[in-house]
Amino acid sequence: MKTLTPAAAVAELARHARDGRIALSAGPSEPLALHHAWRETPETAADILFAGLFVPGMNRFDYADLHPRAGMDIVMLSPDWRRGFVERRTRLRPMHYSAAFATLVEEGAGAAAFTVSPPDANGLCSFGLSADLPPALMTRAGFKLAVINHAMPSTHAAPQIPIASFDAVIETDTPLPELAAAPSNAAADAIAARVAALVRDGDTIQTGIGKLPLAAAAALRDKRDLRVHSGLVVPAHLDLATGGAIVDAPDAIRAGVAAGDSAFYARIAAEPRLSLVSVAETHGATALAQIDNLVAINAALEVDLFGQVNAAFAGAQQISGTGGLVDFIRGARASRGGRAIVMIQAEGKGGASRLVPRLANGAVTVAQAEAPIIVTEFGVVDLAPLGLDARAEGLIAIAPPAQRDALAAQWKATRATL
């Protein structure tokens, strides 16, 4: 096993990437220490597709910008990666998160870089704050580089790996990527309060990231005996734990990644209730179906009067992706006592309604057959048991008041053509 400089490390990664792919750990484990070396030697990124479960808003680096023939392999889109996507060098794969994980593991990579904590006295490193993809990908990578980051905590919650499992190492103390908090507003707080009324003591909750899910998590502070089963564990979940809302038991908080700021990383590393596991466990259909009273709490951009949900498009422009939304909707549906909730801020800029007559072609993230409970600042409707007309009526009732008459007229016209 060789100890390399960052410049030598990116050259070695390129040399071993015979399949044209380099896989990277992401989230708080993105190997930031290699970025400068890639910038200084852009030829090492030529003809390379950088793959990983990158977290929008947290992993900000655009690998496609390293070289005119570089690209990224992504399942969620972000403004940070838009240039490569528009130029068709970055490949966006429209997959559910569970399928993206399985595909990345199956495909493997000729070379991969993994951030780990420093080895202990027994030569064991911890994957620290990310167990979503790296442990599974280790078995499918050719050349394996360990980025030993002294800023990465050695958490009991994540799997460990012998340092001897790697082909080469670099050492760094680069600060870890952080996920900024999303500020709330009056509409988000109103939606969050309605969501909290749907959650019962003893439930297991999943929340996405962004303004609405974080507001919903904060609104659960008065609940008791909750558990968390989510793709990400974030500061809002830890606040629930320290405030007494999370049951005091091992494995009460299960996630693939811990995402927040440096203060959160220090706190979560010592949290005895935390377990970090792979995407197969956080998003897998079999695993989710075995959790009783699973409440999936996520956000979207639009819903139409058929109950179809858009979580990826703003007008004609794609701005995000499916992510784990459908995985968790299906999982909550399969859970005994489960509930699938999608939050939408109904009133947009200028009073426009985000509850629309019919979504544009290609903008459907959640099909009408999987329609969840919809929560807006104006009310709640459970679409699953309702017929077409009742769905439309229920959604119009929780649309912005000034838009309800127009929506009713548009539904009447649409209904006549069905």
Structural overview:
By secondary structure, the protein is of the alpha/beta class. The chain has two domains: 2-172, Glutaconate Coenzyme A-transferase (3-Layer(aba) Sandwich); 186-415, Glutaconate Coenzyme A-transferase. Helix content is 28%, strand content 22%. It contains 14 helices and 23 strands. The protein has an eight-stranded parallel sheet. It has an eight-stranded mixed sheet with strand order 14-13-12-11-15-20-22-23, with helices on both faces. Strands 17-16-21 form a three-stranded mixed sheet, covered by helices on one side. Helix 7 (211-218) runs parallel beside helix 8. The longest helix has 13 residues, at 186-198. It is globular.
Characteristic terms for this protein:
418 residues; single chain; Glutaconate Coenzyme A-transferase; alpha/beta
Quick summary of this structure?
The chain is of the alpha/beta class.
What's the helical proportion of residues? 25-40%
Mean pLDDT: 97
CATH topology (fold) name of the largest domain? Glutaconate Coenzyme A-transferase
- Give the CATH level 1 class of the largest domain: Alpha Beta
Task: Specify the number of helices.
Answer: 14
Number of strands: 23
User: What portion of the residues fall into strands of 2 or more residues?
Assistant: 15-25%
Strand order, main sheet: write it out: 1-10-8-6-2-3-4-5
User: Can you tell me the CATH architecture of the largest domain?
Assistant: 3-Layer(aba) Sandwich
Main pleated-sheet profile: 8 strands, parallel
Taking the alpha carbons of the first and last residues, their distance comes to 66 Å
Per CATH, the superfamily of the largest domain is: Acetyl-CoA hydrolase/transferase C-terminal domain
List segments where confidence is low: pLDDT < 50 over at least 5 consecutive residues.
none
Provide the domain count. 2
Approximate shape: globular
Protein structure class: alpha/beta
| Radius of gyration using CA atoms only | 22 Å
